[in-house]
Amino acid sequence: xxxxxxxxxxxxxxxxxxxxxxxxxxxxxxxAPAPAGQAAQQDPADQFVPMKSLPQQDQLPAAPxxxxxxxxxxxxxxxxxxxxxxxxxxxxxxxxxLSSRVSEGAPRP
Length: 109
Description:
It is a single chain. The chain has helices at about 1-30, 35-40, 55-60, 65-105. The protein has four helices and no strands. The longest helix has about 40 residues, at about 65-105. It starts with a helix and ends in a 5-residue tail after the last helix.
């Protein structure tokens, strides 16, 4: 049964990696520079400002929320995998018990 757990854990890791890779591709596309004709039309206030020149409170105001969201997702994922693991162990025990009853030739209740 540990093989089943390892396969499901592997599938979750692959899915998480694909989601992270997809998000980075979307971020890279969003951060791509605009064509030369559009760059001249933008207001200078909308252009890139280095992080060092921003005040401390404006640098990354959503960092605590971002960390909390990632922590929540990971905890929920781990709880879900743990509950599935417990259910699989219960089913495995029942199957072993049933196979031992069948091999002993015990009468069915």
